Structure formats: structure tokens, C-alpha cells
Amino acid sequence: MDEQREMKVKNPWHRPVIILIIVLIAIGIVVMVATAIIQNKPLHQKYKYGIVLDAGSSHTSVFIYEWPAEKENNTGMVRQKHACDVKGKGISSYSGNPAGAGSSLTDCMAEAQKIIPVHRHQETPVYLGATAGMRLLRMEDSSLSDQVLDAVERSLQTYPFDYQGARIITGQEEGAFGWITVNYLSDNFRKASGTIGALDLGGASTQITFVSKENSENPENSMDFRLYGNPYHLYTHSFLCYGKDQVLKLALAKKLQSLEMQEDVLKDACFHHGYKANKTLSSVFNTPCVSEKLADSPKSFIHWGTGDGVECQNAVRKVFNHSCCQYSTCSFNGVYQPPVEGHFGAFSAFYFVMNFLNLTNDDLETAKAKLINYCSTPWEEIKSSYPSVKEKYLAEYCFSGTYILTLLEDGYNFTSTTFKNIEFIKKIADSDAGWTLGYMLNLTNMIPAEAPDTPPLPHGGFVSLMLVLSLLIFSLVIVGYKCFRRPVVYSSAPKDIV
Ligand SMILES: Nc1nc2c(ncn2[C@@H]2O[C@H](COP(=O)(O)OP(=O)(O)OP(=O)(O)O)[C@@H](O)[C@H]2O)c(=O)[nH]1
Ligand SMILES: [Ca+2]
């Protein structure tokens, strides 16, 4: 009988406290495993893809985007997987041979076929958006621009992807989708920190887009969005002909029309001293951006650099018309613009040029002074300092840099103070800044008006819960171990001690 009682007392499994501990440990483990499974489920995602062709005035780029299939409505999920530069010029340059525009895309589209897994090809949307080069061609001859678009459409339809159309996008779309791209990639739609404005400088047009508190005085410059539960009132404007290639023609045409031309020589302060090139008049006047034609003038001229940064600034200022403004405030050419607000991301040629000139971290006054110095460097010295840079780009950096600073200061009314709020960027989180991502997000409905479901727990909450549960289990194991090891007290013990 005594033996039986002793056995009963010795068996720890019969103690209610031990049973309770084991049950709690089991519950803890089940909760931990279940939470980990739910939390990490999206890690085992399959990817989806989308293709957007940016048919710009100077060249075409093909962008491939990817995103986790089950998280497409969460902000920040879409990333650029690959970008391919189409060889040759932009599609608008194929007006004399529209079929060539279609076949120019083949190399980059073949790359896309290799990069995107075959089983996803059929469901991968393809969009082509053409910008200012095609807007200009349509202004000149709409049947030619239609032929070029038909040719690229026929070419894109030959691939196994889900072709969704090729069209000329509007300047407002180009500005607004560039703004969506930079803010999506910076994750600003989820953060309380607000958004950044977008500055895009192409070859044939330039866009400015930012959130403005002002009531818009012109509905054409105003766009309203509701994204992830927040309303945004955007100011946007696209200046056709104010991309850096077209504005150079505009500036040259103004000089050619003035008295600056003597004996077929055009002296130009925006080109380096020692720069000399034979150019045809048609290379300047072959665009609807330059309205007046020259009468009784030679067919070609010598473009002669004098390399004077200050004089270049004065010449560039002449491409902006400040004489007419029917609103409370304007940028230039009578276009309504409220005062710039907040931080800006400036990309495409804003970045190429400012980065080459090493001006991306300077304040406005320093940038201007450095540029004047750069412009005064002789052409031979420039060429030998940068032997690997394309000569066409190299020759134009003085002009382009001067145009950029003048556009920002005299055009958009940035001051020395607000200029500091501009960041010159090429990529954000490995994706190029530009309108294409925003365009695709919009067309695939991946930017919901209301905030989508968030994960069951925020990351911090998940980690804290795991930590608390681990500590609890650990303590329970210790307590259980101590109970298990505690010597059994026998009724005869006191006797032994005594
Ligand atoms: N310096 C330099 N210039 C470049 C580079 N890539 C493009 N450009 C030039 O920069 C200008 C703007 O280029 P993009 O932003 O591609 O212009 P785009 O999209 O073709 O033109 P839009 O239709 O007006 O938007 C053009 O004059 C290009 O020739 C580069 O890597 N370096
Ligand atoms: Ca562009």
C-alpha cells in the first residue's frame, strides 16, 4: 500500500500543474506555427509580368515589369525586371518607311520572350505609348502617324503576348503617370510623408507635375486621383517643343532669323569655342515647333561655337515668352502654373545632363557658375577629356545644361531656396523613373482607390508576438523542468532528518 502511494506521488505526469504547462506549451507551438504560416504565405509567390514600350521622340525603350501574383493591389509590389533600348531612332523618324518602325522592335521583343516564362506569355499585357515625337508627326501629317502606329501594332501582334494597343498618349497622361511612377516607387502612397513632384525632360517635350494646394485656374492643368484611400489634386503641364532637341532647334532658328548670321556663319555662345560644324537649314526648320521659315537664305550654314555661358543664358531665355499671362501666375508662354510646392524628382534628360556636368548636388548659384566655366572650356579640350562620350551629346551639354537651369528658374519659377528641393534621379529602387510604370499600373487597375487588405499582422507586430510566445514557452519549459526534477517529499523524511 505504501509502495503504491509512493509510486503515485513520484509520477510527475499526475500533477495538474505539469499537465497545464504541457497544454500551454502545445498551444504556444500551434499559435507560433500557424502565425508563421499565415505571415509568410506570400513568400511562395508566383510572378506575373507586363510589358510597356516607351516610344519617345529620340528612341524607344521596352520595359518588362514583374509583381507577385497574389499581391498585385499592394503598393510597392511592381518592379522593373528588365529594360531594353531599341536600336536606332524613335518611331516618328520612320515616317518615310513605316514598316521599319515595326521591325525595329524585334530584338527587344525577342529578349522579352526569353525573359518572361513561357507559361506566362499569353496573359502578359503589352502596351505601347508614343509621346512628343509622334504628337509632332501627327500635327504635320496625321495619316503618316497613323501608318507608323499601324506598323508597330502589326509587329507587336506577332508575339505570343496579350497585345493591348498602341497609341499616342496625351501630355497630361505623360506628366501624371510619371508622377505616379516616382511616388509608387518611393512608397509615398503608403507613407504619411506626402508626395514628390515629377520633372521629366525628353527630346521633344517636358512635363511638370506636383500636388498643389491652389484651386486650379485652368482645368486642362488639373488632375484628381484617389489612390490607396487618399485624394490627390495634381497640377500638370506638358510643354510640346520644349524637350531638349526641339528647343535647340527653336534657339538656333531664333538666331538664324536675327542678325547674328553673317556670311553663312552662325555664332553660338552655347557651343564650345573651337566647335565648328556644317549644318543644313532643314535640320533646324524640319519641325512644326519652328513656325517661321527663312526666305532667301542659304541651304546650309556653319555652326560656330563661341563658348560664352552668360551670353548663352541670355539667348536661351528668349525661347520663353513671359509677356502674356491671363492667370494669377504663369510659368511661360501664357501657361497657368501655381507656385512650385514640396520636393521634386527630376529624371530623363534632367538627370543625364546634370549628372554628366556633375551639378546634381550643387545649389543653383554654384551650378550656374560651374556651368559658365564648363561652357568656356575649348572644344578640343572637352573632346580629349571625354573620348568615350558620343560627340553629339558632348557638343550639346553646355546648351542643355543652360537650358535646364533656365527652364527651372525662369520657366518654372524655382528659386535658390526651392531649387534645393529638386533631386536629380535616374532610378528609384532599381526601376527607371518615367511614365511607363504608372501607365501600366493604371491600365491593369493595380492602383486601387481604397487601401487594399494589409497582412494579418504588421511586421513589427509579428516579430513581437513571436518573441513574447518564445519567451513564454521557454519560461514554461524551465518551470516544468523544475517541477519534474523536484525531489518527492516522503512522510518518513522528517524522521530521517531528526
Ligand atoms: N547625354 C545623354 N543624353 C541622352 C541619353 N539618353 C538619351 N539622351 C538624350 O536625352 C534627351 C531625352 O531623352 P529621352 O528622355 O529618352 O527622350 P524621349 O523619351 O525620346 O523624348 P520625348 O518623347 O520628348 O519624351 C534626348 O535628346 C536624348 O537624345 C544619355 O544616356 N546621355
Ligand atoms: Ca520620354
List keywords for this structure.
elongated, 6-stranded mixed β-sheet, 498 residues, alpha/beta, membrane, 5-stranded mixed β-sheet, Nucleotidyltransferase, domain 5, binds calcium ion, EC 3.6.1.5, disordered C terminus, binds guanosine-5'-triphosphate, 3 domains
Helix-strand blueprint:
Blueprint: H1 2-10, H2 16-40, E1 47-55, E2 60-68, E3 79-85, H3 98-103, H4 106-115, E4 125-130, H5 132-140, H6 142-156, E5 162-168, H7 171-185, E6 197-201, E7 205-211, E8 222-227, E9 230-240, H8 244-257, E10 261-262, E11 265-268, E12 276-280, H9 282-285, E13 300-305, H10 309-317, E14 344-348, H11 349-356, H12 364-375, H13 379-385, H14 391-411, H15 416-419, E15 422-424, E16 427-428, E17 431-432, H16 435-443, H17 459-485, H18 493-497
Parallel strand pairs: 1-4, 4-5, 6-14, 11-13, 14-15
Antiparallel strand pairs: 1-2, 2-3, 6-7, 7-9, 8-9, 10-11, 12-13, 16-17
Helix pairs in contact: 2-17, 5-6, 7-16, 10-14, 11-14, 12-14
